[in-house]
Structures are given as structure tokens and as C-alpha cells.
Amino acid sequence: MPGLSKRITTLNAGGSDGWDLFYKAKRMIAEGIAVTELTIGEHDIRTDPAILEAMHAAAMDGHTGYSLIPGTPALRDRIAARVTERTGVPTTRDNVLVTPGGQAALFAAHMGVCDPGDTALFIDPHYATYPGTLRAAGAVPHAVATRPERAFLPDPEDVAAAARATGAVSLLINTPNNPTGAIYPRATLEGLARVAEAEDFWLISDEVYDTQIWEGRHLSPRALPGMAARTLVLGSMSKSHAMTGSRIGWIVGPESAIARFHDLSVNTTYGVPGYIQDAALFALEQGSALEACVAEPFRRRRALAQEILARQNAVGLIPSGGAMYLFLDIRSTGLSGEGFANALLDHHHIAVMPGESFGATAAGFVRVAMTIPDERFAEALHSLCRFAEGVARAA
């Protein structure tokens, strides 16, 4: 067989893609073992039936052929209006490209701003696909480490040093953050904006969790003075509307950049099915009430988790203001995140994600998705804490 490209064979830099424990849990489930699944960010509710009815109606009405590549005008207008309402930054359809999910937006953004061999910065801890996506776009990924004692918030001075050392052309941030749940405060974002301007790079802001805010306020860096011209915002219907399988997201950015991203879409995805875009338009037209309904279980479970974790000492909770996860400090056990997660799965059939799946900085932590009904979630968290307490005593 002919060889494969270096691009495809080096996506994971010779290592794991970060999802090993998730795959292990799925194999156990396939073998008939009852596993409590707290790994992936998949809602335990499904897409609202009214959205599915709108999707079905659009398909039956014939919107099943090729759709306009940048997205239907009506959907782009609605996304632009949503962005304008929430950020105060005037936004039109010409600032919006519809993509097949947030992951496609992430890839397209880096394809659009990075030439082969360019350095692309990202914050560690990070979503598991970030490094591989940057490599797929031809960029050289460079992690900027954060520290748990700062709740894993990035230090603008560290970003500046990395940008100067590498000549980076972009910085990828994620707020509210996956895996930590951190919401970047204004001072942090203003510091990053100053660095972006001083070092003249693009700021790529992954904001797919912008409807899951438990404390504080989400601020898009595109709304900061002078930043609309150098910021690309990634959005998605997956988390806000429980539409993970529908694969619909977007990029918001300068008109000239979005026009070029249109060219990329012509030669890669060739757009998003029209009936799915129509369903997304219907979902967005329902306003914030539907988004709040989708987010409410996670708000409730976060409060439940805080009560449970306050009654023990073996497991710490990184302060978080948003997203559908808990980021737990299990360093008292003496185990790595991978060691703890594998032992918890093997002995208690509870699956959580090792911190190492999200970068070297997250060693000694695990991420717990708050994605099962409250009673089962509380039971699983109690079991996790008891397991950690037992390991810590034996250490």
C-alpha cells in the first residue's frame, strides 16, 4: 500500500488523541458492562422535538439539495443579530460563515490564518482536539501553560513571551473553558488583546459554551476596542441547543476574512444541509428561554456537586463559572489523572476523563461531565469521592 501523508500520520504527534479512556468505556458498555458515563459533553436530554419537527418539515418541503455555501441568508442574519444583541458589536451576514459544527469552524479558522509551518498558540489545559486540528491545518501547535493556583487562567505575559519566541500568527482561547469551566475575566481578556495587538496575531475565540454561565459574565474578546478586526469567534448549536449530532456551527469575523473562508468551504465541506440550517434558524428564533432550559440541568448539578464536594477533603474543585463539566483535583491520591480515571473505571465502572487528555498542565486532575440525571450523578460523585479518600489514606 502506498504511504500516507505526514499530515495525517502526525496529527497526534506520535501519541494518543486523548480519548483512550472514552474508547475503553465504550468497549466495556459493548460487552454488557453497566458503566456510568461521565466523559463526553453529550446532553442527557435530546434535541427539542419542536426543533426536530422544524427539521423534518424543511426536509419534506424540499430543502434537501445543495445549499448556499456560506449559509442561508436567513440563518446568517439571525446569527448576526444574536451576536450584535449579546456583544454590542455591529454584525451582519457578511461577518458570518455557517460550518458543519464547531469543530469544522475550528479547522477552517486555522486553515484561514496559518500558513504551513506557522506557529499557532493555544492555552493548556485545552479541549482534546486542539493540537491535532492545528496540525491538520498545517500549523505548529504551541501550548501556553497555565497554573492551577490561578484557576488555570492564562497569564498575558506568558502568552507574550511565547508569541515573541515563536513568531506565532494566532492564539486560540476558549471561554467558558472546556475542561476547567473557567470564564476569562475582563482583565485577562484585555491583557490578551493588548498582546495580540502588540505582537500582531489573530485571536481565535471558541465560545461554544456561551449559554452555560453559572457565575460572572461571558465577554467575547471581539467586543473589546479594536479587536473586531483581528478576532475570529467560533460558535455552535451543539451545546446551547442540544444539537450535537446536527453538526452546525459558525465563524464570525471581518468581512474580508469570511469571504475567503467561503472559498475554503467550497473546496472542503461544500456547505451544511439546508433542512438542518432551517432547524437551527427555528431554534435560534425561540430565544434565550430555550437556551436556559437546555442549560438548567447543568446549573442544578453544579450546585449539587458543590454541596457533595464540600463535605470531603480528598477531591478539590477548580473554581468554575460555566460549561457542563467539573474539573477535579485528585492529586491527594498520589495518582495521575490517567491512573485515577482508569482505576475508577476498572473498580467502580465510572468513566471520567483524565486531565492528561487536555494537556500536560492538567496532570493530577480529572474532568467530570455533568450529563446524567441528578440522582445518578450524585451517586457517582459520592463514589468517586469515597474512592479518592480510600486511595489517599493508603498512599
Give a verbal description of the structure.
This protein is of the alpha/beta class. The chain has 2 domains: 147 residues, Aspartate Aminotransferase, domain 1 (Alpha-Beta Complex), CATH 3.90.1150; 224 residues, Type I PLP-dependent aspartate aminotransferase-like (Major domain) (Aspartate Aminotransferase, domain 2, 3-Layer(aba) Sandwich), CATH 3.40.640. It has 13 helices and 12 strands. The chain has a 7-stranded mixed β-sheet, sandwiched between helices. A hairpin with a 7-residue loop joins strand 9 and strand 10. Helix 3 runs antiparallel to helix 10. It is globular and about 60 Å long. The model has no long low-confidence stretch (mean pLDDT 97).
Low-confidence spans: none
**CATH architecture annotation name of the largest domain:** 3-Layer(aba) Sandwich
Main β-sheet: number of strands, strand sense, barrel status?
Answer: 7 strands, mixed
What proportion of the residues form beta strands (DSSP E)? 5-15%
Shape: globular
> How far is the first residue's CA from the last residue's CA?
50 Å
CATH homology superfamily name of the largest domain: Type I PLP-dependent aspartate aminotransferase-like (Major domain)
Number of helices: 13
Find the count of extended strands (DSSP E, 2+ residues).
12
Question: Radius of gyration over alpha carbons?
Answer: 21 Å
